[in-house]
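Reagents: none. Just compute today. argininosuccinate synthase.
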Amino acid sequence: MHSAPEDAFAITNALTETPDTPSVIELTFVKGIPTELNGQPMKFSEIIQQLNTLAGEHGIGRIDHIENRLVGIKSREVYEAPAATVLLKAHKELEDLTFERDLAHFKPTIEKQLSELVYNALWFSPLMDALNAFIDKSQEVVSGTIKAQLFKGNVTILGRKSASSLYDKDLATYTAADSFDQEAAKGFIKLWGLPTQVYSQVQLKNKQSQFVKAVTKSHAEDKVAVQGHYASQNGAKK
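Predicted 3D structure written out:
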């Protein structure tokens, strides 16, 4: 096993060469698109260039993995993507803050299919057009600012802010001041668990029935064996 040689990397530092002081940044998104870095409006391309430099200094964005190519063979690929690493994490945090639950759970499915189309050079396919329409619609609420720390190869999220945030601390404080009606949870829990409860009862009933049948069969076999034993003994006595 061999590590990628250090001279294979051009824009990221080895962790041993990274600063001992973290950098804190703020990224602002409008409908899913990065528009500001540290409060300064910039073109998307400029944000990428600055993040490549800043995150690269902290050793962020080195990727060494095995890929499955379109033709079926596996290959080891080494990449540098400091800006993309930071942007993807910040963007995901903003989505988690603004997405409704079902959308948040479903979007990774679309992301996987979309990334495969890009990897397989199918950017102009009808499916790509349809998936992009989904992405555009989903991003309508993804506006806000993410605060992150860059340090020793890691991106750590420090804060999130959005006018479209669905987080309500009064509903999720887990304290006596929680505005959520805990009594309402009792009925929900009973209804939510009902299908599993019925399933478990049926499974238990079937297992008990199988056990009774097995015991009955065993007793019957024992009875036949005993009768055969006595019959054999009586025949021998005669």
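Helices lie at 44-57, 82-98, 101-119, 126-138, 184-237.
Action item: order primers for follow-up constructs.
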